[in-house]
Design a protein that fits this description.
Two copies of one chain form a homodimer. With about 650 residues, chain A is α/β, with parallel strands linked by helices. Chain A has 25 helices and 20 strands. The first copy, chain A, folds into three domains: about 240 residues, 3-Layer(aba) Sandwich (Rossmann fold); about 170 residues, Rossmann fold; about 130 residues, Rossmann fold (3-Layer(aba) Sandwich).
């Protein structure tokens, strides 16, 4: 990848002596803004912002970007991984024309302002929300990979702190970047050698350079406050076969004598005036800048925050063709139905030149049934190894590039291990579809470490994430096709076992060609007036068996399959409650899943009925699926016998 | 640390030619058992077990251990990180006298048997449950660190797979081991160069040796099937200044010609007889071992599984003196009360020679208020850097060594980022106290990435973890002292702000000297008969403000502080329901916290009342705590006005 012409022109211009002088002047203006905004807010992170600002200003002076069109597709991207340097990030954007400086300074960290404490993508020019450390390099990998696949000649820059190099996820991202030869990715470490508790060497010794070299990166060491060195490193990194780390030796608090090399200023702001002279007034004097602090205070006082209307931006759906339902008449596993639907949808959308789908895998393609897709569309299949933290963030960033992006994994790895990465993705409004196989105690012999019985509880802990739970292969196919064009974050959990096809009492296929999946709709599988049972996912077949067993005792069980437990139609709950008994039946932690969703709705409707929840009450055991259900009192015989006891007293 | 005499005697003996021959014979018996048990179960992981078994047998031949007393305190410990090689682990234990071989073989992976699919500590000799990859080295660090602190001259061995080296947590553990000079720790990588999807090189290229060297480990490369080389490496690793990695080049499926170097056998078992000859019969013939498969099948058929009585082993409490309550009369933050209680408890328990307390920190001691403990007891304070995944696992393992172990961190890092590590700890019956500061939107300016509003939802997703939520500094002090001697896993979340002291209507301190914390007891802060409000944690003060505002409208609000929402006394719920209105008020996701706990109890009691939950409904914003509450409709004025609307229609 040779250096492109636009970059070269900018580089040649900015390195002219008079322009370097102008950049130096901009750096002084930036330091001034950083100190004012943090002092004004009385909170924030000035030390690291002063240490990282020269890198940011140098970058904006040469990269491809347009403040009037921050989301233009062929822009270079900057990811701020150490999100607490938001003062530096916002200031650099402002000085580059993205928004008015004094307004930003005055609103920083005010409730209702876009200028939040850690960088947020609601600010024009911010590509990725961070604040939880160690995730930015993975997001950068996602952006860089998407650019490569699309053939864009753009570069992605990731700025990181030095303390966060301790996070394991960064080692995963390093490997991924090497494997996929992301030479359109350049990372900076703002290496000021201080973290909150003292020097990095005393907190956790680490040879950052050796680690990146071990993972086959190019490493350039520079003085991170020497603008010409920074620019030369940026240039060098754009013309290299492997990803580049620019290890930028910097100084915490750089530019203000009494702040330099003191970790105190990581998260402490300058008072306006202090007796010891360590204050904003002195700092402004040292920078030779006027003091308009009182004016800014007035501006700040004028800002009015509203109350939160709690909006969630729903991005438009993707132009993905869903294809036609595959009808299953024979017992099979939901995971195979997912894999088949994926390949079928891909066939409908493959133009030969571009396929708007992507699949990320963590070494489980065979089990999670994405191997078929891998064989046919290897260029859209990303083998990411046993590196789930990285993969979720990387796939999340990638998903914003117009690909319908799937990450398929076992339940415990795909949500339990990666919950916080999913949460950050959700905050970033990503478009990721998590397809989990091997959830529930249905997993069987692999035992408790592998039995994910909290997937719904985890999704309910996030705000814009939805869980869609298929009951059989036919419903799986419908749900995957419904999802195919949807934007947003969804989780589709499945068990491992082969399942019978769900049928009507008359023997017709329930989720056949005519079924239409609708978010929030529960399905009445069996009608009955003695009691009602709500079920989801793998256990749906067993619920029908329970209905059959109860029928023999003249108990007519109403059976509802709930595939979207986060939203249950109140009319359905009323209809069920009218029987006088409601039961829930789930291959999930009994406290945080289907029963809990239903309890919320019952209370909401002020309905008092006899209620019992059948679900998982402790870490399960290892054994074949049916034996484990039996061991955990969840086999149809035990449940139906308990129901009989309750109803017949 | 010179090699101890017991080890040297064993080493000198086992390396005699006749004893090496016996060890080789044992390895053949072990391979036979591994193949039989996996074929019998029809599931499990024979390939890796055959690759790792020579390492295990060599280890047991020289380490300090006693099959008649598997938990003797001065034993060497073996942690199996790649838990799927349970057939190798169980077989090695069995051949070393821990339990009867054929019984183990016949019960493998049967529901109700201790011989679970992935290694579990209910099996004598197994130190740590694994199965989710990448955590074992962290557990080994915890054990090794505890041995060092206690002055034990014992060694900890961690066996890992090669694929799992891709997990970032391992890089964190490597750094920790180096920092704390854990030369009593030796790690093995079973380097057969194959993982599920193919060669490690094709899945995710990695230079394992370079990575360990970058983190200052000693690396020994050996043939992992050459017993003398293995033994020599073990010996060498016991006499070294830094931790040692033994990179053992091995062969997947080693010992059976048709299984060697084929990744298919990672998770696939040999059929008894197959047309192509790739079967158990051929394998036994190659090993020159008799075929008693049918006999074993009969044994297996005789095993009867019960149903799960869902017991949870409660370990005895620790001999820790709780000390005397510190009474706070002035507004302060709960985190300071936690830090003060910690130091005070330490003072009561410090014998000068031994302090049965430990604190782990991830670079936030100043904010989470453990800095006071750090200053006074640096030898019991472990600075673990920004490496939360590692730290939770390491502290979990460490907590089993008789120390009351605290890990204090911000909410999002201490539970959201590390949920799966906590879950594995819970499965391992650890004894870890997670003290979270900076939970809720009370965190304020740091914004949504830092506002942990799901801590209770996360704890409810686990089975033996309890959440204790203090309302003010006085209750914080009581709760920390109550915890001081308790065994098990607890999470204590706190906000960031200074809080008023909660008082009775008469102005007396509510959580004063006479208060006794009791698990499951809710506290009636204000009596009233118009409506009832349940609150927890940071918002308790604001709930009292609401009661005051409502009083002006002649609404008498019953206010309950619930510090243990996972268990709410039914009598309390009845008393509240008798008012006709129940409200919940929480600085937490409204779907998964206090409201949800109460809804479960209301449904359970079949109580229909007017109910409204006030809580967090979307990712919050950045701003000062009170402004964010207001922005999210959770300030006392908004809530009381909504309550008035509901009650007065």
């Amino acid at each position: 990848m040779p250096i492109n012409t636009a970059f070269k022109l900018k580089y040649d211009s900015i390195t002219l002596p008079e322009n370097i002088l102008a950049l130096k002047a901009q750096a002084i203006a930036a330091r001034t803004a950083i100190l004012k905004m943090t002092s004004l807010a009385g909170s924030g992170h000035p030390g690291g912002s002063l240490s990282t600002i020269d890198l940011l200003l140098s970058l904006y002076s040469v990269i491809e970007h347009d403040p009037r069109n921050p989301s233009k597709p062929d822009r270079d991207k900057i990811v701020i991984s150490h999100g607490h340097v938001s003062p530096a990030a916002y200031t650099a954007l402002s000085l580059n024309g993205y928004f008015e400086l004094n307004q930003m300074i005055s609103e920083f960290r005010l409730a209702g302002s876009i200028y939040e404490g850690h960088v947020e993508p609601c600010v024009p020019g911010i590509e990725w929300a961070s604040g939880n450390l160690g995730q930015g390099l993975s997001a950068g990998c996602g952006f860089a990979l998407a650019n490569k696949i699309k053939g864009y000649d753009n570069h992605v820059y990731v700025l990181m702190g030095d303390g966060e190099q301790q996070k394991g996820q960064i080692s995963e991202a390093r490997r991924f970047a090497s494997k996929f030869q992301l030479n359109n990715l350049t990372a900076f470490v703002d290496y000021n050698k201080l973290q909150i508790s003292g020097t990095c060497d005393s907190v956790m010794p680490q040879d950052i350079k050796a680690e990146f070299l071990a993972d086959k990166w190019q490493v350039l060491e520079i003085d991170g406050h020497d603008l010409l060195q920074i620019l030369a490193a940026i240039k060098s990194s754009r013309n290299n076969a492997v990803p580049t780390l620019i290890l930028a030796h910097t100084v915490m608090g750089k530019g203000i004598s009494f702040m330099e090399n003191d970790e105190k200023w990581h998260g402490q702001t300058l008072p306006y005036k202090a007796e010891n002279g360590c204050d904003l007034v002195s700092a402004l004097a040292e920078l030779n800048q006027p003091d308009d602090f009182l004016h800014l205070q007035e501006l700040r006082a004028k800002f009015t925050s509203g109350k939160c209307s709690l909006p969630h931006t729903t991005n438009p759906d993707l132009p993905v063709i869903s294809g036609k339902h595959i009808n299953y008449e024979q017992k099979t596993d939901n995971r195979s139905a997912w894999g088949n639907a994926l390949v079928d949808i891909a066939e409908h959308n493959n133009t030969g030149e571009f396929l708007p789908l992507a699949v990320f895998d963590c070494d489980l393609a065979g089990s999670v049934k994405t191997a078929g897709f891998r064989e046919k569309y290897p260029q859209n299949f990303f083998q990411s190894g046993i590196m789930e933290h990285h993969t979720v963030t990387c796939a999340g960033a990638f998903s914003q590039a117009g690909f319908q992006t799937f990450f398929s994994d076992f339940g415990v790895f795909g949500i339990d291990e990666t919950y916080n990465q999913q949460r950050l993705n959700d905050i970033n409004d990503t478009n990721l579809k998590i397809i989990l196989t091997h959830v529930g105690i249905d997993v069987g012999e692999d035992g408790k470490t592998h039995q994910c019985v909290d997937y719904l509880g985890q999704v309910r802990n996030m705000f814009n994430f939805k869980c869609l739970i298929p009951a059989d292969p036919n419903q799986t196919d419908h749900i995957i096709r419904w999802l195919a064009a949807k934007n947003g974050n969804y989780l589709v959990p499945m068990g491992r076992s082969k399942l019978d096809i769900i049928r009507t009492p008359e023997g017709d296929i329930f989720y056949g060609d005519d079924y239409v999946f609708e978010y929030g709709k529960a399905d009445l599988l069996r009608d009955g007036d003695t009691a009602a049972l709500f079920v989801m996912g793998t256990l749906t077949n067993k619920a029908l068996k329970i209905a059959g067993l109860l029928k023999q005792q003249n108990i007519n069980l109403q059976v509802w399959n709930v595939s979207t437990p986060q939203q249950i139609n109140p009319e359905v709950v009323k209809q069920a409650a009218a029987t006088g008994y409601i039961f829930t039946y789930e291959d999930h932690n009994v406290h945080t899943g289907l029963a809990s969703c239903l309890q919320a709705e019952l209370v909401n409707l002020q309905l008092a009925v006899k209620f019992k929840a059948f679900g998982v009450q402790n870490y399960p055991v290892s054994g074949n699926s049916d034996a484990v259900y039996q061991y955990c009192w969840l086999d149809p015989e035990t449940v139906s016998s308990e129901i009989i006891d309750i109803i017949k007293g």
